Amino acid sequence: MIQTKQDLKQYLAADLARYGKHKPQWWTKFTFSETWMIHSYFKNIRYIEYYQNNRHWYNLPALLFRTLKQRRMALKYGINVASHCLGPGFYYVHPGFFRVNGDVQIGANATVLPNVLIGKRRPDKDANVRIGDNVYIATGVTIIGPVTIGNNVTIAANSTVIKDVPDNCVVSGVPARIIMKDGKKVE
Questions:
Q1: What are the pLDDT digits (tens) for 51-84?
Q2: Mean pLDDT across the stretch 127-155?
Q3: Which domains does the chain have, with CATH numbers?
Q4: Measured CA angle at 141 (ends 80, 149), to 5 deg
Q5: Pairing relation of β-strands 116-120 and 104-106?
Q6: Which of 65, 109, 144, 177 is the most buried (most CB within 10 A)?
């Protein structure tokens, strides 16, 4: 949770470090780079979280500005992520549809590809999705809660996760089933 300016700097640094050699540079903003677009969206989410956790009267204009900017970018880029749900070091690879409800928690160093939906089974229920650290979510994945996904999990493309997944697994299919656990193939 981003409570202080120091927390904000640490989260932003962790997010930026995940880009590796593809970090957005100052000129990428003017060349309409997808890396800049994604980075600016998630940087804005981090600032919203900081301002929501520090509700002083002098932060309200910045919170309003960042919230309106986030709504505009959500429509423009097809990405809609609630604040307070992403751990440090989050990495979204390419632009494309990505939707995360507010009652979802994604751990540190998660990598997500486009066309991912993380939500709830029914409109009247909470999603209650908990995703661990170092999780890789491939393109086209749907995660329907309530579900808990452990640490060091890989979810294969076009899978639908509706059951809990333990640590150190690879899951695939509709509905997703474990195909590897602790580096060994599961029959």
A1: 999 989 999 999 999 999 999 999 998 899 988 9
A2: 94
A3: 1-78 (no CATH), 97-187 (2.160.10.10)
A4: 95
A5: unpaired
A6: 109
